[in-house]
Amino acid sequence: MDLLQWLERTFGVIQPHRDFLKRPLPPRVGYAYCLGGVALCAALLSALTGMLLSLYYVPSAREAYQSVVLIHQELRLGWLVRSTHKWSGNVLIVFILLHTIRVVVSRAYRPPRELNWVAGALSFLVVLAMGFTGYLLPWDQRAYWATVVGTSMASTVPVVGESLVYLLRGGDEVGGVTLIRFYSLHVLWLPLMLLLLLWAHFHMVKRLGIAAEL
Questions:
Q1: Does an H or E element contain 40, and which?
Q2: Which end of the chain is more exposed for a tag (fewer CB within 10 A), N or C?
């Protein structure tokens, strides 16, 4: 308690958010409105375990697979950290999808919340991209060929398809450059984009409140 009081005197982070945390909820708000919160918890858990994995993972075509084997088989509780990272990512995707369905059913995307809907939809796309880029990182046969197929699908985009494939792979074929590029996207660029989108999302929730159920 003394520590919290000291933090409040020093940084003043509790009082500005007290009204947001204690604001009244609309009528008939149930557990369906907690889906977004579950997704946020899964995102935080995925981020924490991802930071732990990055201490031992080697994003190199020669060493990536062996570093994953080391994490999974030799490090104490490494298998647990890796499995938690994998399943928290899956839970994140599932609950964002359920949260999106709840928003559509309750028509919470209507004005004045249309921009919040855009931020949430973009967050969903970024999370899917994080799942796709993370799938290559174990650098085994399944991950390799899944990435070959996944990046090839970009060639169907009119006009810029071939250029988009080259941009994703970093060359004509999936190789070490692709691995480095996907690793950079997975641990740096996409998380940064997600952080900004979630900040915008929660900021608008704070300003507009929770949409009441129809």
A1: helix 35-54
A2: N
